[in-house]
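cache lookup: miss for this entity combination. No prior model stored, computing from scratch. Input as submitted by user K.M.:
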Amino acid sequence: MPKLPVPGPLKRPSKPGRNGADGYKDGNGDGSGRDQALHVAKETGADVAGWVDERTGATGFLTGMLFRKVPKGTNWFYTLGSATLFAFVVQALTGVFLAMYYTPSPTEAYESVTHLTNDVFLGEFVRGMHKWGASVMIILIFLHMGRTFFFGAYKYPRELNWVIGVVLLILTLVMGLTGYLLPFDQRSFWATVVANNITATGPVVGPYLADFLRAGPEIGATTIQRFYAVHMLLVPGLMVALIGAHLYLVVKLGTTAPPWVKAERPKSLRKTEVG
Amino acid sequence: MADPPDSKQGKTTPNGGPAPLDKPDPAGYFEGESMNRRTAFTVAGQALGGVAGLAVALPAIGFAMAPLFEEEGDNWEAVGPVANFTEDTYKPVTLTIVEDIGEAGKTTAYVRKSTGDDEIDGEDGFVAISTRCAHLGCPVRYVESAANFICPCHGGVYDFDGKVIGGPPVRPLDRFQTRVSEDGGQVEVGPRFSVTSQLDPVRTRDPGEFTGGIWEYLYPPRPSTPPAP
């Protein structure tokens, strides 16, 4: 039988004292070799992980990230950021599936949305998750922001992470604005008319910005396609990148203790207090 | 080229120690060069990257901005026979302002016969008022019993001529140019234009933008809009 091209580290190194010390029999007369096969099967997962780890150094990174120290007093409020991330992931996933049925055209958008809501299996559920998830995400962001503010977690050295967070908030609101037009019903249409005209009220640059958003003087075919591209390609891409930077800084700088937790005095200092 | 350091050996300081070496030229520089090979390649590489970046970014930006500069068509649309319209009330007519996008491209205008008092009224004696509220663009409705235009969104109220008499709108209702068709039978409605609070025609502006005086500069018109009549 030809040897299979197994990468080196995937092959188990032969251990000394196999037959005795580590307690499994190696085909010594019972003829099955079953024990050995079982042992190999048990170790395969570890071997594959080891092969990947040897080439990526992922273990060190993941250990540092997942088992990092958190301060005393860490509580449920600290999960709001993760909750927001979860909401983003839900929006991304449901958005992908909605995009499979959606047509970004002023004459077909409304029909495609009613079709996916009424006819497609679980379509109403997926659309509902996307629609209500959008509101949930914005609520969670503000709760997360409030936690950061009231716990003073925006202070040195975490100011940059606050700034990134604010940009993410703005991008999320842009998602809300651009996504609102897509069902293209009366509410979508007139809400976008109003939003565009609010943009236009900025002096000097406002009219040009509104024209850019609308792609012309009136809401038309290009507007909805433009909003769709911004909603599902441009802004989500930016958000993924910024969420990465946000998480990197969280892991690198660590989290803060809540303000009501007093710093503990080291023992060495406590001794000198006596004298 | 810099002197090799070992040529300085043999010299001594007064107290007998070895003389300090001359400071050599920075590594990689030939004599008289202002830039070494590495710097030259770095600058060239970054310049090339910049050119490549611009080559992608500029067409993309142009692509996104192009629709702003498209000329608006000088579209005239017949909205009904001359006899349909009277001086004392408005009749709603439907116009297509964006082609090929179905209902979303249509808008409503209110048309009446001119009383002949206002210079702004069309030469052929008809007035067409846009339903686009001058606050934020919601559709206004003409209420016949009050002879007012009322906006459902934020409570803007306009009088019979479209001047603001209440609520947040910043200028009177926009109008459309009007004329009578060549055979004299049909009223035709043309390009939109905005008006100042004194009902002077200006180039069309988006809702929410003031007109007249300094506002003409603070809210510049789109380059492609047709001039005011």
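stored under new cache key. Helices of chain B lie at 37-65, 215-218.
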